[in-house]
Amino acid sequence: MIYFDNAATTKVFPEVLDKIKIWSQDFYANPNSIHSDGQRSRMAVEESRRYIASFLGVPEDEIIFTSCATESNNTIIRGLAEGYPEKDEILISPIEHKSVLNPVRYLSKRGYKIRFLKVDSQGIVDLDDLNKKITPKTLFVSIIHVNNETGVVQDLESIGKVCKERDVLFFSDTVQSFCKIDINSDSVDFFSVSGHKINAPKGIGFFRRKKDIQLTPLLFGGGQEFGLRSGTENVVYIKALSETVRIWNENRAYFIKKLKDLSGKFINGLKTIIPDVEIVSENAERSPNIITVIFPKIDAQTFIMALNTEGIAVSSGSACSSGTPSPSHVLLSYGYSEEKALRAVRFSFGVDNTEEEVDILLEKIKDIFGKLSVFY
């Protein structure tokens, strides 16, 4: 398979994979034990935390390791609700990942008032609407930094300024932006990261929390991670995450240029093959690796399965239950019809993709579109 679904997950860097086996032998001890082996594991955790904090420009004790962004998002959202029970309103964009939407819906069933913010046709949050909807009862504002379906980038600095002026907490899911788009740490009170989106293993992530903010933990136990995430730390994967961030940091300019070149080549080639194809949010600032396109006439599921048969992996933003696809909530929020939303296909590039693979992708799309379009 040629893999163009890197927004869903990425391949672990080979050099990180090689080190994981070594680290599994070197850092097997519990980092909470006081003996020498345990303290070696503790040092590995804290050195990793220190490096990631330095990369982001935040204090070390504001980095909390978790298993993934879903855990982080739930910890932040539900932890804030328990930490500030006097506030019962939440402002949220309608284009959030489900790991944010669903815990918020959970709170709505327990009496919280959920208010959705307006987004324009390019997927950008309306700052005037945000300012109007904040009240003294607003617990926090949640706006995803880079949308996982369309790649649209939100202006965290401007959003953070509004939130700070109105004295309300600001949380952002930064899963798709971490290492690829700068995160203005001063503008955001909380943000979440998942390692497997940047070529680290699945099962490791973290969130940043400004240390003066009250947060009730989701998990209770031994009080690890400054009391915010109990459970024995996954030392090996924490090391793997830190090493992956180091690789991105040292190669960032090259990686970003490569992703932009691959995306540009794909868009230009696609428009040549199918002139009336639509690039979602084409006029907005987007991540260098995520492109969602709406093909004329042909539904996404048919196109994805046809590409899969040809050995190419891509995805859509549509949820599928019992074999019946439903349109992306993100694209519906942009103002797309259900019919159009069901024709949206996401192509997401990784740093290990090549221009030759993009050439093959374009050839397969041309062939598939030519064959399928005669039936529509």
TrEMBL record:
Listed cofactors: pyridoxal 5'-phosphate
Residue ranges occupied by any Aminotransferase class V domain in the UniProt entry: 2-361
Record has Metal-binding as a keyword: yes
Keyword Iron: yes
UniProt keyword list: Iron, Iron-sulfur, Metal-binding, Pyridoxal phosphate, Transferase
Enzyme Commission designation: 2.8.1.7
Family: Belongs to the class-V pyridoxal-phosphate-dependent aminotransferase family. NifS/IscS subfamily.
Any one Pfam family match given in the protein's UniProt record, by short name: Aminotran_5
Catalytic activity: (sulfur carrier)-H + L-cysteine = (sulfur carrier)-SH + L-alanine
Listed InterPro entries: Aminotrans_V_dom, Aminotrans_V_PyrdxlP_BS, Cysteine_dSase, PyrdxlP-dep_Trfase, PyrdxlP-dep_Trfase_major, PyrdxlP-dep_Trfase_small
Species in which this protein is naturally found: Persephonella marina (strain DSM 14350 / EX-H1)
Catalytic class of the enzyme: transferase
Gene Ontology molecular function, alphabetical: cysteine desulfurase activity; iron-sulfur cluster binding; metal ion binding
Protein name: cysteine desulfurase
